[in-house]
Amino acid sequence: MGKGGMSQGGDGRGEEEENMAAWLLGVNNLKIQPFILPPLGPHDVRVRMKAVGICGSDVHYLKKLRCADFIVKEPMVIGHECAGIIDEVGTQVKSLVPGDRVALEPGISCWRCQLCKEGRYNLCPEMKFFATPPVHGSLANQVVHPADLCFKLPDNVSLEEGAMCEPLSVGVHACHRADIGPESNVLVMGAGPIGLVTMLAARAFGAPRIVIVDVDDYRLSVAKDLGADEIVKVSTNIQDVAEEVVQIHKAMGARVDVSFDCAGFDKTMSTALSATSTGGKVCLVGMGHNEMTVPLTPAAAREVDVVGVFRYKNTWPICIEFLRSGKIDVKPLITHRFGFSQREVEEAFETSARGGTAIKVMFNL
Fold first, then answer.
1. Using an 8 Å Cβ cutoff, are 91 and 43 in contact?
2. Shortest CA distance to 145 belongs to which of 40, 33, 30?
3. Which of these, 6, 38, 278, 296, has the minimum number of CB atoms within 10 Å of its CB?
């Protein structure tokens, strides 16, 4: 089950209040039920959750009991974007004390495989990641987690912002993979939560010009408010790619050095490959389609590099510094807030699934 907890058994916690969590029991079936924590290891901490965001993967699990190749086969606690307050520390934990406010990195790698030893621990085949079957998540009153994956928040960074370090980390890691800097003009395909945090991260890394593309007027208006230099509304029709590439080039007014596909569909990737300048780079961040048909050969002839992005590595410190310094402001992304009751959990997931004006839906526990 990983560190998160278990659905049955005991841990000798006696008369302390019962730990409750949001369990995914079936399609569109979430229930708040008891969640028994494992014993606290010497290098672990027990964290009282205070802010948990809803991710697109959480909604996928709720609607389909699967996300990509990960399939829910037994009841699972959901949620992985989180921050909270330390309640208890293990005997060997020196870096944190009860009362510290922390943001949690949700993936526990093995630290023994070749990828981990090379520093690419996000690709560890033994990764135990919150709310990725069969590992339980963090939408609970409390969780147990390794202390080295809990990052102390500065006084001027809220717990909600701490929870936003998780989606922001995707954008930061994408920018690392694409080597974004002051000479990188950036195209972002998709103005959903990941597209928006990728845009914010690219700006923080110095990208001088950013154009963002979407099918939705509201999300484009949010992107513009958050600092996109230009926005381009597109269709869902793949026949429109050539015409829309012309619009994108006109909006950029310069080379498109790097494109981030934050949607992951045939059309968005085709547009990114076609719009990116010769010798540029396309980063595939979104995973909308498991398989895609895209014009790779013309892109290869122009030496357009295609780079994959999976989760993140070593991003929490820089995310927290961006938030502390004000280089990135994620607060406008949090559009809806809910408490932790059965009714509110159901309503929150319905709100997130509907989309509309919802960008990031956040639980305050």
1. no
2. 40
3. 278
Q: How far apart are the first and last CA of the chain?
A: 23
pLDDT at position 14 is: 39
Q: What is the pLDDT of residues 173-223, one digit of tens each?
A: 999 999 999 999 999 999 999 999 999 999 999 999 999 999 999 999 999
Residue 214, SS3 per DSSP: strand
Q: In what order do the strands lie in the sheet with 76-77?
A: 29-34, 20-26, 76-77
Alpha helices per DSSP H over the chain: 56-64, 114-117, 159-163, 165-178, 193-204, 217-225, 241-252, 266-275, 296-301, 316-325, 342-354
Please report, for residues 37, 172, 310, 329, the alpha-carbon distance to residue 181 in angstroms, rounded to integers and kept in the order given.
43, 12, 21, 19
Token look-up 């997931």 returns 349
The CA distance from 152 to 268, in Å, is 37
Q: Yes or no: say if 141 and 21 are a contact pair by the CB < 8 Å rule.
A: yes
Q: Which amino acid is residue 273, in one-letter code?
A: L
Pull the structure tokens for residue 26: 């079936």
Instruction: Provide CB contacts within 8 A for 16, sequence distance 6+.
Output: none
State the pLDDT at residue 9.
36
> Nearest CA to 335 among 365, 363, 361?
361
Q: Mean pLDDT score of the chain, rounded to an integer?
A: 94
* Predicted local confidence at residue 17, as pLDDT: 81
Q: Can you tell me the distance from the alpha carbon of 63 to that of 319, in angstroms, rounded to the nearest whole number? A: 30
Q: Could you give the CA distance from residue 98 to residue 83 in angstroms, rounded to a whole number?
A: 14
Residues 6+ apart with CB under 8 A from 333: 164, 193, 196, 197, 226, 359, 360
Mean pLDDT along residues 302-315: 97
- 8 Å CB contact between 241 and 158: no
Burial class of residue 303 (count of CB atoms within 10 Å of its CB; 0-12, 13-18, 19+): exposed
CA–CA dist 4, 84 (Å, integer) = 14
- What are the counts of helices (DSSP H) followed by strands (DSSP E) for the chain? 11, 20
Which pLDDT score, from 0 to 100, does residue 13 have?
Answer: 42
